[in-house]
Amino acid sequence: MGLEQLQNLDHVTPANAVKRKTIIASPHMPQKCLFLVKSGKVRLYRILKSGKELTVDIIGDGHIFGEVGSFTTGSESLYAETIDDSIICTLDKDKFETIVKSHPEIGLRLIEIVSSRLKEVEEMLELIAYGSVRKRLLYMLYKLSQKFGQKEDSDQEWVQLEVKLTHQELASMTGSIRETVTEQLSNFVSEGLISKIGLRSPLSVHPERILRAMEKCN
């Protein structure tokens, strides 16, 4: 049994329908629990002293966040807000322990997911410290294509991102500023790395070209 089966254990993890733009977790909420995104998308962010929101990550179907007992996903100090109408399962300490004892393979799968996410965070922090804005943005677009990419019927080499992010949110996630991100995205279009037809249309990316462009970056 894997994490996919966990989504079907409704008797242990009751699912709640949550409307878009709903804050489902914050550092001020006293109850510690894990949240499983059964469907939908959730934005994790911090609020800076200036009052600005700093987007840390976007997670989708099958991903978890939160904290229970000594098990943490590294998101316990973050706010979590649904981007779309979502189905969220909640696990408190007792439910978490019940599942792990009954299905230890699920516990291992949860650890794999958390480890993968923390690795992404570490890689981005390293890029913020030593890499160029161009490389950070390319890295972020590639990771988004892996998590939210849908292959286009007309061309299997292009994938359409099923998540909409503003230039400001991309700037927050890559440690940059909006104006720089806007300039870089324009360059990416010219280079054939990404494609966008209109302001409200989804962004399409070419993962292989992005990887090759990353290899050439400092």
Give a structural overview.
The structure is a single chain. The chain has 7 helices and 13 strands. By secondary structure, the chain is α+β, with helices and mostly antiparallel strands. The strands form 3 sheets. Strands 1-9-3-6-7 form a 5-stranded antiparallel beta sheet. A 4-stranded antiparallel beta sheet has the order 2-8-4-5. Strand 6 and strand 7 form a beta hairpin. The N and C termini lie far apart (42 Å).
**Which class do the helix and strand fractions yield?**
alpha+beta
Beta-strand portion reads 15-25%
Helical proportion, percent range: 25-40%
Could you spell the SSE succession in H and E letters? HEEEEEEEEEHHHEEHHEEH
Quantity of strands, as a count: 13
Strand order of the largest sheet: 1-9-3-6-7
By DSSP (H or I, 4+ residues per run), the number of helices equals 7
Low-confidence stretches: none
What is the radius of gyration computed over CA atoms, rounded to a whole number of angstroms? 18 Å
Q: How does the overall form come out from the CA principal axes?
A: globular
Distance N to C terminus: 42 Å
Mean pLDDT reading: 83
User: Main β-sheet, in a few words?
Assistant: 5 strands, antiparallel
Give keywords.
7 helices; five-stranded antiparallel β-sheet; alpha+beta; 218 residues
